[in-house]
Design goal:
It is built from seven helices and 20 strands. The chain is α+β, with helices and mostly antiparallel strands. It is globular. The two termini are about 25 Å apart. The longest helix has 21 residues.
Length: about 375
Amino acid sequence: MKVVLLSASACLLTALACTRLSDVGTSPPSPPAAALIAHKASQGTAAVPDSCLMDDEPNPGGEGLVQDFRLQVFLVRELRTCFVGDPCGEGTCASLNRRGGRVVRFADNDNFISLPPGDTRLKGRADAVCLTITLSDEDVAWLNEELHTFITETNVFTDGGVVLNLEAIHLPRLEVGLARIGNGFWLPPFGLEKHLRPHLRPDTDFIMLSHGVLDEEAGVSFDVGACGLTYGSDYGIGGAGYSWVPKTSGAFPFECAERGVMMHEWLHQVEFAQWFLSSRDDIYLSRKSGTHNYPPCGQAAHSPQHWFPSTHDCTSDPCAPDCGRSCSGNDVINEHVLRVHFNRHVPLVTNHCRNGIRDHGEHGVDVGGNCLERDELSVR
């Protein structure tokens, strides 16, 4: 499978994409799902330019397919990790955050890292800051509500064409090292295989993971650098993509783990599936670069189901409500992509271990690489 660099600004990937903190701001709690969905359902596609309302849909006629997908969400109830680095003298400093505005400063270089407790590199490091970060029952209740709202919205925006079946899996404890991203840290799929693979199934379509960032007892938190990050299925686990959305309330004046960010990151997995796994035409996509070459705003030559934009294309997709302006936020572009661009008439292949092709890393068609092995499948 191709390795594609989609963005050089805070997101490095094949389908590694992100929601930057500036995209989210201080998100208020979501309204009740029923009221929200009733409001969303009434909006329809009114914001689509008239020039994009064409009758050349790629597969006209009929109501289209109804596809069920398995979304496995891992909630890390206790995360343990340790931070070490060089002392901060002159120059730029990186830091951990303490309540009251105090910080723990390290030199902002490659030696500022996160390690799992018990790592031999921690031996003799008096400067190590080790955190135990938990998700409370209240945190889990919030996450469940946001997940169900995101799932319901997805079904509404696709006119019932996408049904996400949620399986929430609680991981009692993870002792891991985090990876640097910008000025913060995140939890990529690499190194998580032994924790996640036992829970995966042959029909796993999408993977998402969330954890907290604040050690309540110590009053110390780490920066996240982004509100969400995603890998496509080639760098995911078990053939499925992987999205990370941290729970940040309590540590910061904004919440990353809300429905709009969840849908935004999930849509990055869908983008990869659309562009590289499914038999779907995309008239503006360069598969070599993983980017679109769009015409000017409002000047599309075909109906919008002939291409599937990234959610980061909110100002360049010629049929997007915010084309040529600044992005209005996740809710607007998420709804637009699903209502206007999602083609219900062509099956969406989401897992590269089910695409009928020998992909890079596989030793046979849909066998090997990061696909589940037969001995793993036998105990499912």
